[in-house]
# Entry
Amino acid sequence: TNVIFWQIASTQLSSESDFKNASSLLGGKYIKYSSDGSDVDSVLALIEKNFKNDEQSDNARYEDGGYLLLPALFLLLLFWARKGFVAQLWRRA
# Structure
């Protein structure tokens, strides 16, 4: 479950059945507000569990491919820094 429906508003302001219906439709987990703080513990436990499951399932490392764009960027900057280049572009337009 990646979606947590945490009813932190009072039952007079929000409907418990609406939260339960939404969580069942999205395959999430419904957590009801409690004054003793057990709801916070439940949410934290679910978050920890989801992060651990996600780390185990994602073995691919992030790879930044932006280095391939650097030569094109430097070439563009060289033309931009050339004296009168912007003025030449302006006259052609």
Summary: The beta strands are 4-7, 29-32.
